[in-house]
Design goal:
single chain, about 160 residues, mainly alpha, two-stranded antiparallel sheet, 2 strands, about 75% helix, about 5% strand
Amino acid sequence: MDELEQVRQFDRTYKQVEDYQFLMCRVVKYIFLPLGVGLMLFPLESDTRIFLLYVVAMQSIARNFHLKPYMKVTEDGKLVSIYEKLKYLPITNDSIFKVRKVYLTSFCIKLMIANIILQQIGAAIEGKWTVINLIHPLGVSILVYLLGLYDIKPKRTDK
């Protein structure tokens, strides 16, 4: 069994043990996700640019709660970094990062598709389609992805 499969096996086992934590994170994710994605129905115009901040914030919060159970584990009532928890196993931080990156990429691709579809629907309803209505959801999705990459990378204290 290679390192990536060992990390995935740990995730499956941990998900069964901490199913309540995964459930609560999923509930919070589905509170913020419809709000962030729903704001994509408003086409980006000069008077609605403030929505960009709200969209990125809400989608980033949803992304954070999507990944949180995979990044922090409970140990003696405290949250501990997954990198700290697995440092004594024959698994490198790079392997953990790669698996987390797959989770992040999957989430962000689905998010990008929803963003693009809703932005196009909103622009069609308003009758104001421009190329910005295609660039805007892509930019938001890429920004949420890049912020996620920053969140999942090992910190200096996780060595």
